[in-house]
């Protein structure tokens, strides 16, 4: 992300965004960045910060739209930023990014410090921005957010690009399924071929297989009914973990 923004010099190759170099003034006019750490002046009021960002934007976002993003009361907007909670500061920093109505957004760990409800509100805003055609680059350690929101995934490990794919394609490429059955099927499961990673969880047994058809046939022969079994694709987290483990071998 630092290379895309022109903050880090690349050792080889070339970076072009919208046919523009990362440091070009034209690109800066359509880009907004939310860094990992909040960088808000602590002794300014929320309303003062908003007015300042509106004053330097060519086509600032309407007050009504800003209020929809922030969901702050008038009392909160009159507060100094140092009085806000961590999640509120993060949401404010995000709202300030959007005041200039950027066409390209860079978000570094955007939901850090947000509680569950604020995080849900944040992703609703992201979905609306996507619908408007805004291009969004974001880094996140919340795999579920990547899985449900991203259209394209780049897997980076120790500075090396391991994958350039989509959530669906990444899971489908593995052809591995996770099966969950009642615990009373444990003795049967232990004798099945083509399975691994057997785990007992409370009153269920879970395992992985790449031979779903043959395993399901064997289970049916032992009296397993469709109502007894839960089948899931391998999670994106499992796939990412396997990919990084393989790279380290």
From TrEMBL:
Coiled-coil ranges (or none): none
InterPro entries: ABC_transporter-like_ATP-bd (IPR003439), ABC_transporter-like_CS (IPR017871), ABC_transporter_ATP-binding (IPR050763), P-loop_NTPase (IPR027417)
The UniProt record lists the keyword Transport: yes
UniProt keywords, alphabetically: ATP-binding, Nucleotide-binding, Transport
Source organism, top-level taxon: Bacteria
Ranges where the ABC transporter domain occurs: 3-183
GO molecular function: ATP binding; ATP hydrolysis activity
Pfam family, one: ABC_tran
Protein name: ABC transporter ATP-binding protein
Organism (species): Streptococcus gallolyticus
